[in-house]
Design a protein that fits this description.
Length: about 280
Amino acid sequence: MRIDSHQHFWRYTPAMDSWITDQMSVLRRDFLPDELETELRGNGVDASIAVQVDQSETETLSLLDLAKRYRNVAGVVGWVDLAARNVAERLKFFSQFEKLRGFRHIVQAEPDDRFMLRSDFVHGIAEMRAFDFTYDILIYPKQLPAAIGLIEKFPEQRFVIDHIAKPAIKTHQIGVWADHIRTIAKGSTVMCKLSGLVTEADWNNWRAADFRPYLDVVFEAFGTERLMFGSDWPVCLLAGTYNDVTQLTEDYVRDLPGRERDNIFGLNAARFYGLASSA
């Protein structure tokens, strides 16, 4: 079973989606499962994981409703206020939804680079363990040290790094990012998504060769059993089509054994998000 481990849905509203700037005008419309299904079929992908973009429980419930109505939405990574005093109560509430697999916070937007090490946020991560939820880490390279610190506190928690931690591909910066990636990969329960690459490059002039140094690092650090393909659709449309981003990973792994390619294009995501029974 081929799984896209990272995509988004939304019904566009200017007030809620203010993060979509004029430069991103291609994203100023609705993106819903019927349109994604066409992209999945065209690229031989069977199912996807829908990931939050709005920090609200309302959006999480909306994604769960879509997942209930569309079989190809295999799971949801939602949002809950992990720093809230009633976080255990909210996690218990969300545990009733079969397709709710984990949570994410838009840490990249937090002004404090050590946000993930705040005591209230750490408490929220600790509470997740009782419900076996996963956690997607969305950060910039400057926040990798805090992510490393968080992971060290919770060696049994299942974490995944979104978008390979958004290295500065456009300006070809790699050294410090690469060192932190090698460190964070030492956590045996940490995985990494091969997603969001084209939007960290020059949107209009990227080449496949631009990504190879970064892919070399994550493949060496995580190995093929802890990496998973993700399209980041529709955000990827800023710089390429669904087929473009799929082909980037396909081309990179072309010479790997079939089982390793299957890991990256579905089996790893199924294991991480608890979808093994459907793989």
